[in-house]
């Protein structure tokens, strides 16, 4: 008999840190990486990276485990404007345990709501996480 997947709670400390992250004044890329503590069934902050490129972020993420990332991106528009969209990226690589994928997927919507994220993207492979990919996704929001 299969057991139901419990949707995980969001650590209040993560919500507090995400609000600070959203209001940061720096003009560089930054990433707040989140993960699920499987034993405690809680989504918590894993790492915070300031001034990180998308390539470096890709290198920081686990290749065979799902991840949530809140990414503040320095987006230089074609017309010369600069904006700093806050992107929620859910990475669910193929080949990881189905139970873990289900736990992350089942908890995603609650986390998005708690973080008040509006630009939501999903990937099935870390190799897809490139600057060109992100720019193509953000082009939709112009």
Structural class call reads alpha/beta
Secondary-structure element sequence? EHEEHEEEEHEH
* Count of folded domains: 1
Number of helices: 4
Which quaternary structure do these chains form? single chain
As residue ranges, the low-confidence spans are none
Strand order of the largest sheet: 1-3-2-4-7-8
| Amino- and carboxy-terminal Cα gap | 48 Å
Under the CATH scheme, the architecture is 3-Layer(aba) Sandwich
Helix content: 25-40%
Instruction: Please identify which CATH superfamily we are dealing with.
Output: Severin
- Largest pleated sheet: 6 strands, mixed
Pfam families: Cofilin_ADF
Protein name: ADF-H domain-containing protein
GO molecular function: actin binding; Arp2/3 complex binding
Main location: cytoplasm
Write the layout of secondary structure elements.
Elements: E1 9-10, H1 12-22, E2 30-37, E3 42-50, H2 54-60, E4 67-72, E5 75-76, E6 82-83, E7 86-91, H3 98-115, E8 119-123, H4 131-138
Parallel strand pairs: 1-3, 7-8
Antiparallel strand pairs: 2-3, 2-4, 4-7, 5-6
What do you see in this structure?
Its main location: cytoplasm. This is ADF-H domain-containing protein. The chain has 142 residues and is of the alpha/beta class. It has four helices and eight strands; from the N terminus they run βαββαββββαβα. It has a single domain, classed as Severin (3-Layer(aba) Sandwich). The chain is 31% helix and 28% strand. The chain has a six-stranded mixed sheet with strand order 1-3-2-4-7-8. A two-stranded antiparallel sheet has the order 5-6. The model has no long low-confidence stretch (mean pLDDT 92).
């Amino acid at each position: 008999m299969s057991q139901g997947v419990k949707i995980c709670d969001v650590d209040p400390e993560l919500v507090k840190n995400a609000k600070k992250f959203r209001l940061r004044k720096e003009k560089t890329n930054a990433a707040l990486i989140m993960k699920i503590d499987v034993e405690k069934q809680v989504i918590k902050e894993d790492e915070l990276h300031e001034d990180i490129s998308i390539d470096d972020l890709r290198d920081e993420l686990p290749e065979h485990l799902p991840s949530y990332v809140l990414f503040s991106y320095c987006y230089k528009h074609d017309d010369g404007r600069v904006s700093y969209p806050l992107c929620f990226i859910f990475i669910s690589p193929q080949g990881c345990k189905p139970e873990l994928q289900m736990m992350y997927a089942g908890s995603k919507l609650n986390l998005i709501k708690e973080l008040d994220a509006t630009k939501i993207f999903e990937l099935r492979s870390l190799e897809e996480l490139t600057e060109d990919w992100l720019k193509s996704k953000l082009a939709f929001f112009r």
